[in-house]
From TrEMBL:
EC number assigned by the record: 3.4.16.4
GO molecular-function term, one example from the UniProt record: serine-type D-Ala-D-Ala carboxypeptidase activity
Source superkingdom: Bacteria
Keyword annotations from UniProtKB, A to Z: Carboxypeptidase, Hydrolase, Protease, Signal
Name the UniProt record assigns to this protein: D-alanyl-D-alanine carboxypeptidase/D-alanyl-D-alanine-endopeptidase
Entry-linked PANTHER family: D-ALANYL-D-ALANINE CARBOXYPEPTIDASE, PENICILLIN-SENSITIVE CARBOXYPEPTIDASE A
Lineage, broadest ranks: Bacteria, Bacillati, Actinomycetota, Actinomycetes, Streptosporangiales
InterPro entries, alphabetized: Beta-lactam/transpept-like, Peptidase_S13
Coiled coil segments of this chain: none
Cited Pfam families: Peptidase_S13
Length: 513
């Protein structure tokens, strides 16, 4: 049986009156304000949806003005948060690393330069920048050439030792290995576009006469393409990288241009290949082969690229729910606080931050929420949302949250197609979350009275299609909430599927979403 905050409020008032009146005086129960009681009734009705009969549903709503609990049901239950995990990762990163934090990618020389000849190795060293594009590595190569170097007698060393060598989360599903949203984590990596999906390549197929033409973005021969696709009357194509290899196998039929974002097997090796090609383009020849290793002490810097500050990176990270950003920031925090670029050190930093801000129940296994062993309660999320409002970095962090119903991809983010033309549109700012059988929505909304509210909705273990519309109905009802005015309890959403997609747009790319 669910116990709502309406009953909690009434119980608290009974106890308070009994104490004030003395032990011999009868307690008089006071009902909560009509607005709060109506809210509880309406949310209970929304949650009575038959799709949740066998599922788990936890909800917490509080006033951000005074912390008052307005609604609660199973808010203390440990549930899978999916990408709501990123609320903790992003907030901890803002606190631990600071909004001015920048990643650095540099080119170092371990030898002597005589004229245009560099005797020794050339080292490409990364610290995790997920925003590095092929053009950025080209600019570094141009800088090396501009220093007068034309020939390197030694090796090209790919240095990704800023992080450890563990590439994948220990709980990640094996069948996600080829997907861009579960790409290997490395301190030396590259993204194919300005979504900054680090560690992936865009593979494009298109009909070309009677054959299927395959291209990649960026243009690279690092991947080994096995093209078994044929031209057909419809596009039904599968593009997957074979486990533990560089081989991408393409099967099915192609009728029109189709793009697939595919993870690479080893981001550092892939990045070094891009850099070697760029060096060659700028007239710099490296005689030795490419190897993995650490830059030697005393190596001299020849070129450097700094990323955008964290304050800016938060936008593509949170708006598009970028898993790789979450994991890179987690390891960066570990490096900052414990000099260890590991998941263990970074997750401890995130957990320590959360607990220092009043969060009592938290189990983090990764930074993104891909792990099905992550566990958070709605009450914990609501506590985080309240606690960070006093942080100096809060405004930048708040601005990075997706905005309901705003069509701009870098404003609305994963909420851009939800709650349009409702009181929640351009009002609700919240983090989405999606896994099979899991959906979550947590964030901020302003009520009809202008009162700021925080909320967390977590739905787990359902077997139906996604019940994201239930989240939307609750969020819309919160936008309509008034402590004094009567609200029409009939909360309806448009029936169009795009209003509550089965998957958030972090799992789908722009053309599909």
């Amino acid at each position: 049986m669910r116990r709502t905050s309406a009953s909690l409020v009434a119980g608290a008032l009974v106890a308070a009156l009994a104490w004030a009146s003395g032990p011999s005086s009868p307690a008089v129960a006071l009902e909560p304000s009509p607005g709060v009681a109506d809210l509880a009734q309406d949310i209970n009705q929304i949650l009575a949806d038959s799709r949740l009969t066998i599922a788990q549903a936890g909800v917490m709503v509080k006033s951000a003005a005074n912390g008052e609990e307005l609604y609660s049901t199973d808010a203390g239950k440990l549930l899978m948060p999916a990408s709501n995990t990123k609320l903790f990762t992003s907030a901890a990163a803002a606190e631990v690393l600071g909004l001015d934090y920048r990643f650095t990618t540099s080119v170092l020389s371990s030898g002597r330069k005589a004229g245009s000849v560099l005797t020794g190795d050339l080292v490409l060293r990364g610290t995790g920048d997920p925003t590095m594009l092929a053009d950025d590595y080209d600019a570094l190569a141009a800088e090396v050439a501009g220093s007068g170097v034309k020939l390197v007698t030694g090796k090209l060393v790919a240095d990704d030792t800023w992080f450890d060598a563990v590439r994948l989360g220990q709980d990640w599903a094996w069948d996600d290995e080829t997907a861009y949203y579960a790409a290997p984590i490395s301190a030396l990596t590259a993204s194919p576009d300005r979504d900054y999906d680090a560690g992936s390549v865009i593979v494009t197929v298109a009909p070309d006469g009677g054959k299927v033409k395959v291209t990649t973005t960026p243009d690279t021969d690092y991947l080994e393409i096995v093209n078994k696709a044929t031209v057909g009357s419809s596009t039904d194509v599968l593009i997957e990288r074979t486990h533990g290899t560089k081989t991408v196998v393409i099967t099915g039929t192609v009728a029109s241009t189709y793009n697939e974002w595919v993870s690479v097997d080893d981001p550092a090796s892939y990045t070094a290949a891009l850099f070697r090609d760029a060096l060659k383009k700028h007239g710099v020849r490296v005689l030795g082969k490419t190897v993995a290793g650490a830059a030697p002490g005393g190596a001299k810097e020849l070129a450097k690229k700094e990323s955008m500050p964290l304050s800016e990176l938060l936008v593509p990270f949170m708006k598009l729910s970028n898993n790789i950003h979450a994991e890179i920031l987690t390891k960066a925090m570990g490096r900052k606080v414990a000099d260890q670029g590991t998941w263990a050190a970074g997750l401890k930093a995130s957990s320590d931050f959360a607990r220092a801000n009043g969060v009592q129940v938290l189990n983090l296994r990764d930074g993104s929420g891909l792990s099905r062993r992550d566990g958070i309660t709605p009450a914990s999320i609501a506590q985080l949302l309240l606690a960070v409002r006093d942080k100096p970095w809060y405004q930048a962090w708040y601005d990075s949250l997706p905005v309901a119903g705003n069509a701009d991809r870098f404003v609305g983010g994963t909420l851009r197609s939800r709650m349009r033309d409702t009181p929640a549109a351009n009002n609700v700012r919240a983090k989405t979350g999606s896994l099979t059988g899991v959906t979550a929505l947590s964030g901020y909304v302003t009520s009809a009275d202008g009162e700021p509210l925080v909320f967390s909705i977590m739905l787990n273990q359902y077997l139906s299609s996604s019940p994201k519309d239930i989240e939307d109905k609750i969020a819309i009802r919160l936008a309509q909430f008034s402590r004094t005015a009567t609200v029409d309890a009939a909360v309806q959403l448009k029936s169009a599927a795009k209003e509550s997609p089965d998957l958030e747009c972090s799992w789908l790319k722009p053309a599909q979403c």
